[in-house]
Design brief:
Layout lengths: L2 H4 L13 H9 L17 H9 L15 H11 L4 H18 L18 E2 L15 E2 L1
Helix pairs in contact: 3-4, 3-5, 4-5
């Protein structure tokens, strides 16, 4: 994303180019004003994924925006504590509605995985972790 892409939205951005060690200190210390992060929760489970990114408890290991909402924390803790699929789904949905209404992030989604290969190479399988597993490949 370029600085000029945000100008039409009225957002003036100053990009500070930092040495990797300084960037890591700011990012993992949750001290940066903003950051662009590419990440995913590799497990398709609402309470788990939302807890990683939006719980202000120690379980929120990827709460980079320092989001904090006691109601969301309670919903996610309840969802994580049960094996009932319907309760987990409802808790995640309720928490998600609150999170989206408060918009601590600007979301950008990329769905899919592109892999250029010859037409005689078959067996490509996309996995949720987006890792490229070679064992299913074969040549026809």
């Amino acid at each position: 994303m370029e600085k000029s892409a945000l100008a039409p939205l009225g957002i003036d951005v100053v990009i500070n180019v930092l040495p990797p060690a300084v960037y890591q200190t700011e990012f993992f210390g949750r001290k940066a004003q903003a950051e662009i992060v590419e990440d995913q929760a590799n497990i398709p489970d609402g309470p788990y994924a939302l807890t990683l990114y939006f719980s202000s408890t120690p379980a929120g290991v990827a709460d980079w925006s320092n989001y904090s909402n006691p109601k969301v924390n309670a919903l996610l803790a309840d969802g994580m504590a049960t094996t009932s699929a319907s309760v987990r789904e409802q808790d995640a949905l309720d928490a998600h509605k609150i999170i989206v209404s408060q918009a601590p992030w600007a979301y950008a989604l990329y769905e899919g995985f592109d892999l250029a290969r010859r037409t005689d190479v078959k067996g490509f399988v996309w996995t949720i972790d987006s890792l490229l597993w070679l064992y299913p490949f074969y040549k026809s």
